[in-house]
């Protein structure tokens, strides 16, 4: 298990992915909490095989952050992050996290696994799924 705090201004997905590469973590789970100053969330449409995006350009509290660690089809370290955030009015948004910027801090715990998690492109669904 690794515990790490991202700092204000860090890009969440990019920073976590880089940290995993540096630490040599190939698979596992990341959980986190903190606050984002902006975030882009996405939801996938199975019919159109396209994502819809919601940009949240305000501070948002992170109620839940979970990401599966694995390898993308090209063999690169990859996280599949989902998040639930709420704004100052307690409106809640959830979805796949494309990217976010840390507002004050974002604390993560990385649970490493020795099981390989490789992904492949599923042509019927249109997503990179776990083998």
List the helices and strands and how they pair.
Blueprint: E1 2-7, H1 12-23, E2 28-45, E3 50-56, E4 60-71, E5 77-86, E6 92-112, E7 119-122, E8 127-130
Antiparallel strand pairs: 1-6, 2-3, 2-4, 2-6, 4-5, 5-6, 7-8
Short description:
The chain has one helix spanning 12-23; strands at residues 2-7, 28-45, 50-56, 60-71, 77-86, 92-112, 119-122, 127-130. By secondary structure, the protein is mostly beta strands.
Structure write-up:
With 131 residues, this protein is mainly beta. The protein has one domain: Hypothetical protein, similar to alpha- acetolactate decarboxylase, domain 2 (60s Ribosomal Protein L30, Chain: A), CATH 3.30.1330.80. The strands form two sheets. Strands 1, 2, 3, 4, 5 and 6 form a six-stranded antiparallel beta sheet that branches. A hairpin with a 4-residue loop joins strand 2 and strand 3. It is flat, with a radius of gyration of 15 Å. The model has no long low-confidence stretch (mean pLDDT 96).
Supply the key terms:
63% strand, 1 helix, 131 residues, 60s Ribosomal Protein L30, Chain: A
Report the portion of residues in β strands: over 45%
Q: Oligomer, anyone? A: single chain
- The secondary-structure element order is EHEEEEEEE
How many domains, as an integer? 1
CATH C-level class is: Alpha Beta
Q: Could you please say which CATH topology applies here?
A: 60s Ribosomal Protein L30, Chain: A
Provide the CATH superfamily.
Answer: Hypothetical protein, similar to alpha- acetolactate decarboxylase, domain 2
The second-level CATH architecture is 2-Layer Sandwich
- Overall geometry comes to flat
Low-confidence stretches: none
- Class from helix and strand fractions: mainly beta
- The separation of the N and C termini measures 24 Å
Helical content stands at under 10%
Radius of gyration: 15 Å
Number of helices, counting only DSSP H or I runs of 4 residues or more: 1
Query: For the residues shown, what is the average pLDDT?
Result: 96
Most strands sheet: 6 strands, antiparallel
